[in-house]
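Form P-L/3: holo structure prediction, ligand hypoxanthine.
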Amino acid sequence: MKEESKIEFESFVKHMPKVELHLHIEGTLEPEMLLRFAQRNEINLPYKDIESARSAYQFKDLQSFLNVYYLGASVLREELDFYELTKAYLQRCKQQGIMHTEIFFDPQTHLSHGIALDVVMGGIRSALAEAECEWGISSALILCFERDRDAESTVSLLHDAMKIGGIAGIGLDSAELGNPPRKFQEVFQRAKNLGLHRVAHAGEEGPPEYIWEALNLLKVERIDHGVRCLEDSGLVERLLEERIPLTVCPFSNVELKVFPDLESHNLGKMIDAGLHVTINSDDPAYFGGYLNENIISTVNCLERDINDIILLQKNAIEASFCTTEKKKQMFSALENYVDGFLS
Ligand code: HPA
Ligand SMILES: [Zn+2]
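OUTPUT (holo model):
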């Protein structure tokens, strides 16, 4: 790409109204905030300063990342911490042109530190409500169950969260290999009965069978990651037939060694197969960039173009858990922006 068109392309992405569908709020904990909260809450960390925290962000796989991620999450203790963390991410959304975001949180890790669920959810929800009011950024909150924990307490946790309110859906995250979706059938059935949305991480490190299970047994509406689906043509057919969205996170996949580099990422192949793919940042504080950086670098490395970016964003609007009316508004905001840019 010529320098001039590169600048124009980057500006197109940065100002475009966007939607993010795969974002762990604990994964937005930047080292500065990590150290500040650790000090405030008197938590000992193995990092003395920002540089040593950043230099620990080198991962060989999902588990090595999760060890660092859960250590980071351990500094979150008070409602104010959850509030400030979420507000800081939403401030980024404002800077990045994100008009709607669907946010995961991992209550089980916080409960294991003795923090009450209403402290966690109270802080997150106050920030979400303020961002909607102040900046017009809408959101949905998705409670994730950690699949490497027991499924036993998940139903009571779901009911506790429902009493507090503000949950749009449930998800499944953490260490995938050896923890198949079938373990969580009961809680997903309960969530469906309660009218909640359902998503699950599958086919990130785990095999295509885990994507089949998430669809058939958990009845999920979206697959998080799902990049390994291309190994199974029958699965691709199913994903196409039902137009199941896949929330792909390119920086995450490279940092966790799912692909050796961005150039080898299969997002382009997924687009060409006609799959309902979206692009997202996953854990941006740990993986080197937020949504715009993911879009710009991936599209450059895969030699895709502006039409792919528009398609990915239309896919994200369609795949969101917004009302039809809200989706219409977002589609027209996107179309007006594209028309304005191209005219
Ligand atoms: O990328 C991820 N995969 C699984 N679990 C996670 N929890 C935070 N990020 C991730
Ligand atoms: Zn994720």
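COMMENT: Residues 250 and 315 are 16 Å apart (CA to CA).
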